[in-house]
Specification:
- With 204 residues, the protein is mainly α.
- It is built from nine helices and no strands.
- Helix 4 crosses helix 7.
- The relative contact order is 0.12.
């Protein structure tokens, strides 16, 4: 059973790495890739990463050794980016993730007397808080946020990853970095646009 779960984890990460490679390729392409092309590239790149290719372990196993298992939320965000009608995550979601990460990681690493990481081991209050956040996503008309959190909770309940902590299914350092960098980029663009507008409409 453990070997089977390890295989599933490697397949999941190989698909995620393939999606990330496609995202990078797309950034350098003048035209968006068709959905069928994206699926084909995922299959090709994912296979290349999953098989040993002359090494002792598959390439993705070395990647997993560095990154560990990514959170389900980040994995689904990346996978959903392939969809033709994919919409970017709301700014409010990125702000919440950034605030939680900035509060969570210092305490989880030993700053202060409280360790919020313990809440992930079956705390009813924490689980209710996560469910309430999913409800808020639904009320805000962001259905993708609802099913991402729902799938993360289901994956945690069946111990899809090695971790038994709900935090590891909801948040990881890469998701936190993405949220923070995206917010900084948004603030920078707004400040730049405001400066340009002031320059264009200044007297004289």
């Amino acid at each position: 059973m453990s070997s089977l779960m390890q295989t599933f984890a490697l397949i999941e990460l190989s698909i995620t790495c393939a999606v990330l490679c496609i995202w990078i390729l797309q950034r350098f392409s003048p035209n968006p890739f068709p959905f069928a092309t994206k699926v084909f590239l995922v299959l090709v790149i994912g296979n290349l990463l999953f098989w040993p290719l002359g090494m002792n372990l598959p390439l993705v196993a070395y990647v997993r050794g560095v990154t560990g298992d990514l959170s389900i939320v980040l994995t689904l965000l990346l996978w959903s980016s392939l969809l033709p009608a994919n919409k970017p995550a709301p700014i409010a979601f990125k702000l919440v993730v950034a605030i939680i990460a900035l509060c969570f990681y210092p305490f989880a690493l030993g700053v202060g007397m409280s360790d919020p990481y313990i809440w992930g081991y079956g705390s009813t209050i924490f689980l209710i808080s996560v469910l309430l956040f999913a409800v808020i996503c639904g009320l805000a008309n962001w259905a993708k946020g609802v099913w991402m959190i729902a799938i993360a909770i289901i994956a945690w309940s069946v111990h899809w990853h090695e971790s038994a902590n709900l935090w590891d299914y909801l948040l990881d350092p890469f998701l936190a970095i993405w949220a923070i960098v995206t917010l900084i980029n948004v603030l920078y663009r707004k400040r730049r646009d405001k400066a340009r507008a002031g320059y264009l409409f200044r007297p004289g």
